[in-house]
Design goal:
The chain contains 3 helices and 11 strands; from the N terminus they run H-E-E-E-E-E-E-H-E-E-E-H-E-E. It has helices at 14-39, 107-117, 144-149; strands at 49-54, 58-62, 65-69, 73-78, 81-85, 95-100, 121-122, 126-127, 136-139, 158-161, 173-177. The strands form 3 sheets. Strands 6, 7, 8, 9, 10 and 11 form a 6-stranded mixed sheet that branches. The model is unreliable at 47-54 and 56-80 (pLDDT under 50).
Length: 183
């Protein structure tokens, strides 16, 4: 008598049936896991994305009660709304340099005087090449809110991180007066 093993007595074809059942079971478990992940996901990645920045002080009155929010509130939306307050340094803690790229004599000096009167620390104005259009407000790391606040003084300017660290050395924010600037 020979010992053929445990499976030797099975009917022919049961191996393939068992294999098919095992593969089908794996596929069903995988589908169930993905369905549960989709069902319980925190935030689906659909819908519009909105970002807005407010730099002015907001006062809201509801039923005779008044609340005032801090300046520079940033709101981001992706399916839900959240609000974060960003501290903006006072002008006395921000050093600004104005560069003239449009060739209007004295424009950078006049803007520097305006910034000094607003309480900003200022550096000596200078010329800048190449010519910029529109005007630019460039900021060093950590000074984005302060740069955004200066858009009031330079409407229509693009606000972006400083493209070259050697520009306006010693300044936290660099204003470049572009060809569209008018006094």
């Amino acid at each position: 008598m020979t010992n053929k093993g445990k499976h030797a007595s099975q009917t022919p074809g049961t191996f393939y049936r068992d294999l098919a059942i095992m593969i089908l079971g794996i596929l069903l478990v995988g589908a169930a896991v993905f369905f549960l992940l989709y069902l319980f996901a925190d935030e689906p990645a659909t819908g519009p994305t909105t970002t807005s920045t407010t730099l002015a002080t907001t006062t809201t009155t509801i039923d005779g009660t008044s609340t005032t929010e801090d300046p520079a509130t940033t709101t981001s939306t992706l399916g839900t709304t959240s609000s974060t307050t960003v501290d903006v340094r006072p002008p006395a803690d921000v050093t600004v340099v104005v560069l003239n790229s449009m060739g209007l004599d004295g424009a950078a000096g006049r803007m520097t005087n305006e910034l000094a009167e607003a309480g900003y620390q200022t550096l000596t104005p200078a010329d800048y090449e190449p010519e910029q259009d529109p005007s630019q407000i460039w900021y060093r790391e950590g000074f984005a809110p302060e740069a955004a606040a200066l858009v009031e003084l330079l409407p229509g300017a693009d606000v972006a991180p400083i493209p070259d660290e050697s520009i306006g050395e010693g300044a936290d924010v660099v204003l470049v007066l572009g060809t569209g600037y008018t006094e």
